[in-house]
UniProtKB/TrEMBL annotation:
Residues 7-143 form the Ketoreductase domain. This is SDR family oxidoreductase. The keyword Cytoplasm does not apply. Coiled coil: none annotated. It comes from Sphingomonas agrestis.
Length: 240
């Protein structure tokens, strides 16, 4: 199967921002979407808007059994799985000295274990069918460490490494890292440190809209099977 048309694509974190934009972009390209996140009401509205091309199920990516059930439900609905877009992520930034251990744990659970749970849910299928594509949304923070973002960047360096490891271990599976620069979404709305929240507002003055990242994901998916786009970095023009 080449191109995007008719491919069955699973997208996590589809209830807002980059995930939602990706679902719209891929539906317009003819994909069949199975979408997940915790806020079911948002997924229900998006799936209703897209009609037969999309189905949804509530998903907490930190729960391996829930992710397995999500993949099983996608296969039951559409008959197979061709692509997983591991997009769900959280970014409660703070300086290390603030010792926000619960927030560190949440970032590691969602951004790293969430990605691994997704890979585990689809990898046996992809190996058996000798074909599949895992797209992991990392960040520009997979390449540089930003102030107050030590843990967040640590999780995104891990996403980069996991995707590269997957690529090296599997000749027939495509693996792509998408590394967005600052993008205007709900990410970071849960930052608890007022100074850091203000800094994020400032960074957002020069930001992408989520459709820019969705187009990069579409680009990776629409290549022929023999072409594996390993990474796409997308920054706002003139950003440092
Ligand atoms: P949003 O906050 O808009 O979207 C994050 C999504 O992740 C939401 O749909 C949320 O859904 C979902 N999510 C969070 N926790 C869980 C969970 N436990 N289980 C399932 N879904 C979960 O932010 P973005 O669209 O910006 O983020 C998408 C990805 O892009 C993230 O991985 C982020 O790190 C990355 N990124 C974003 C950048 C930016 O500047 N915006 C820059 C670089 C990378 P719900 O709450 O309904 O579960």
């Amino acid at each position: 199967m080449t191109g995007i048309s008719e491919k069955v694509v699973l997208v996590t974190g589809a209830s807002s921002g980059i995930g939602e934009a990706t679902v719209r972009e891929l539906a317009a390209a003819g994909a069949q979407l199975f979408i997940g996140a915790r806020r079911g009401e948002r997924l229900e509205a998006l799936a209703a808007e897209l009609g037969d091309a999309a189905a949804w199920r509530a998903l907490d990516v930190t729960d391996p059994e829930d992710f397995d059930a999500f993949a099983n439900a996608a296969e039951a609905r559409f008959g197979r799985i061709d692509v997983l877009v591991n997009n769900a992520g959280v970014m409660p930034l703070s300086p290390l000295a603030a010792l926000k251990r619960d927030e560190w744990k949440r970032m590691i659970d969602v951004n790293i274990h969430g990605v691994l749970n997704g890979i585990a849910a689809v990898l046996p299928r992809f190996v058996a069918q000798k074909q599949g594509h895992v797209v992991n949304v990392a960040s520009i923070g997979a390449h540089l460490v930003l102030p107050t973002a030590a843990v967040y960047c640590g999780t995104k360096y891990a996403v980069w490494a996991i995707t590269e490891g997957l690529r090296q271990e599997h000749d027939e599976i495509r693996s792509t890292v998408i590394s967005p620069g600052v993008t205007a979404t709900e990410l970071g709305d849960d930052i608890t440190d007022p100074q850091v929240a203000a800094a994020l507002k400032d960074w957002r003055k020069k930001s992408l809209t989520p459709d820019a990242i969705a187009r990069a994901i579409r680009f990776a998916l629409e290549q022929p099977e023999g072409v594996d786009i390993n990474e796409v970095i997308v920054r706002p023009t003139a950003a440092n």
